[in-house]
Design brief:
By secondary structure, this protein is mainly alpha-helical. Helix content is about 75%, strand content about 0%. The protein has one domain. It contains nine helices and no strands. α5 runs antiparallel to α6, α7 packs across α8 and α7 runs parallel beside α9. The protein is elongated, with a radius of gyration of 25 Å. It starts with a helix and ends in an 8-residue tail after the last helix.
């Protein structure tokens, strides 16, 4: 028997009426786990909150480090080609993560993908404007930068998570990766401002590692913490 024939057969048979007690039982089962939904604040509030977290993370580095050695080591053109893409990526990530907090929002994945493309563009520009230099202490100095970058990325990730808890988490892995990328980007920006090492290998390995670690950690942590319970059906 096909599905259409089954539908006609079932539809042609009158259903027995339900008693009032049975209807009350069904109603009790439906509303048993219903809870009032906490309304979301306007998107502008969350945009401002994430922007404030990012700016605060960058400003805090000015009190931690002495001087801005990385900024001073760059030429005017290099500053433009490095920090304009960094700002653009941060804006795209903030917009994407705020949209991911809102059910039925549009362009969340597209915006995150655009941020990734701009990040690759940034790396390409860096390889053009910076040059490889031999370092005898490549790992030792690199680990110092990795530690410093993570020291600023982790607080940004923590406060970003507090904001994310106010919204929906419909795609935990993507949301975690996006928020992690934003935190890692702050760590990388701090290093670009304060690290005077312009060796392109140093930057591509150790500075970029801060972003990659935060993206992976954010995706794993969010997907495990906020995963949906498996259905018993």
């Amino acid at each position: 028997m096909t599905n259409d024939e089954m539908d006609k057969f079932v539809g042609s048979r009158p259903l027995p009426p339900l008693s009032a007690d049975r209807l009350k039982q069904i109603e009790a089962l439906v509303v048993a786990d219903l809870k009032p939904v906490r309304p979301l604040a306007p998107a502008g509030v969350y945009l401002a909150a994430f922007a404030a977290i990012v700016i605060a993370g960058c400003l805090a580095s000015w009190f931690y480090f002495t001087g801005q050695s990385g900024w001073e080591a760059l030429s005017s053109l290099q500053k433009l080609l490095v920090f304009v893409p960094l700002v653009a990526i941060a804006v795209l990530l903030i917009f994407s993560v705020v949209r991911q907090m809102t059910p039925a929002a549009r362009y969340t994945r597209t915006t995150a993908l655009c941020a990734g493309c701009v990040f690759l563009l940034l790396l390409g520009l860096m390889t053009l404007i910076l040059h490889p230099v031999h370092e005898s202490a490549f790992v030792r100095t690199g680990l110092i930068c990795l530690r410093n970058g993570m020291a600023f990325a982790i607080p940004v990730a923590f406060f970003s998570a507090l904001v994310l808890l106010r919204g929906a988490r419909l795609s935990p892995m993507l949301t975690g990766a996006t928020a992690g990328g934003l935190a890692g980007l702050v760590g990388m920006a701090v290093l670009e401002i304060h690290c005077p090492n312009l060796n392109i290998y140093h930057i591509l390995v150790w500075h970029v590692a801060v972003v990659l670690i935060c993206v992976i950690a954010g995706a794993v942590f969010s997907s495990v913490t906020f995963r949906r319970p498996a259905s018993n059906q």
